TrEMBL record:
<dbReference type="InterPro" id="IPR003593">
    <property type="entry name" value="AAA+_ATPase"/>
</dbReference>
<keyword id="KW-0813">Transport</keyword>
<dbReference type="InterPro" id="IPR003439">
    <property type="entry name" value="ABC_transporter-like_ATP-bd"/>
</dbReference>
<dbReference type="GO" id="GO:0016887">
    <property type="term" value="F:ATP hydrolysis activity"/>
</dbReference>
<dbReference type="InterPro" id="IPR017871">
    <property type="entry name" value="ABC_transporter-like_CS"/>
</dbReference>
<dbReference type="InterPro" id="IPR051782">
    <property type="entry name" value="ABC_Transporter_VariousFunc"/>
</dbReference>
<protein>
    <submittedName>
        <fullName>ABC transporter ATP-binding protein</fullName>
    </submittedName>
</protein>
<keyword id="KW-0067">ATP-binding</keyword>
<keyword id="KW-0547">Nucleotide-binding</keyword>
<dbReference type="GO" id="GO:0005524">
    <property type="term" value="F:ATP binding"/>
</dbReference>
<dbReference type="Pfam" id="PF00005">
    <property type="entry name" value="ABC_tran"/>
</dbReference>
<dbReference type="InterPro" id="IPR027417">
    <property type="entry name" value="P-loop_NTPase"/>
</dbReference>
<feature type="domain" description="ABC transporter">
    <location>
        <begin position="5"/>
        <end position="230"/>
    </location>
</feature>
Amino acid sequence: MSNIIEIKNISKDYGNSKGIFNVNISVKKGEVFGFLGPNGAGKTTTIRNLMGFTRPDEGHCSINGLDCYHNAEKIQENLGYLAGEIVFLEDLTGKQMLEFIASMKGIKDKSKMYELMELFELDPKGKVKKMSKGMKQKIGIICAFMNDPEVIILDEPTSGLDPLMQNKFVDLILEEKKKGKTIFMSSHIFEEIEKTCDRTAIIKDGKIVAVEDMEDLRAKKSKFYIVTLSSIEETDRFVKENVNIIERDNRKVKVGVRGEVLPFIELLSSYKVKDLDIQTQTLEELFLHFYGGEK
């Protein structure tokens, strides 16, 4: 697969350790690529470089082989973009705003626009200045997708959306993925990244700390078995086995198991087990060590 988005060694230093530093990311054609990090980590700065809004101090980035800064106008002819901070013409109605953006993009067939309005249950009659954050976010999402672009760049796309609309957004991303669209999506909400992305870059303090394949991460997830044994003597014997003991509380033992579970089940058969419960480690928990305990 060829890379549609290339970010090579870009740095933008705002001083006081603010900015991004030697960021390298590549996104393949048809890939949904997540960009995960806490607020202030450098996600928006990276995206501003991708959009050609700012020029990096070092390095360069390209979309479809075109330099993002020097060829921004050409790139944006077939690009969908949702900013982290949306600014609209406040005195227009939602419908007028959508029509204005459609005319700016030269969209003749507006069927995609109406389809998205229905999906997100948008009533566009009221003026933008009286709309909630969630309503404005819906308009922003519709603007990003309504020209059916091949490449879509989204900065915190579900900010302000209620859980139902967040789920509809996830459905939209998965539908666009099936069509072979290339999507670059920043977020600090782990769940939407987990549900939609093929790979994810993790940024902390302006630096990429990891790029992870989501399928590989899922395979690394541990299962935790909470085993309650019949007696203290049984428990004392059990904790001496070659198993990963996480914690013990009287006759209750928490054991971590990764990969094949059958040997552990066979081991349990030689004990008098009173109760057995299972917990699965979340992918979010796997990521937490990158943030030093912060989400």
